Amino acid sequence: MARLEKLQSFRLKENYTHQDMANCLNISKSFYWQLENKKRTLTYKMAIKIADIFNKKPDELFYDELKNKED
After folding, report:
1. Dihedral class, residue 42 (left if φ above 0, else alpha if ψ from -120 to 50, else beta)
2. In sequence order, what DSSP letters do the residues of 5-42 get, joined into one string?
3. pTM of the entire structure?
4. CATH code for residues 3-70
């Protein structure tokens, strides 16, 4: 599952809007949307923050994305 689908799935399951996520991360709604839609590069630090919101490990949300950066 692509980052967009997986992250969006977790976000919608928790009934979070893009704005809710942005508020939790202390970033703009636009910036969050860009992360979710692969318009901005996801840093490991941001991956940790996002995973914390869902009480998950970054690997559970972003394993494929982070693995590809190591290759």
Report:
1. beta
2. HHHHHHHHHTT--HHHHHHHHTS-HHHHHHHHTTSSPP
3. 0.80
4. 1.10.260.40
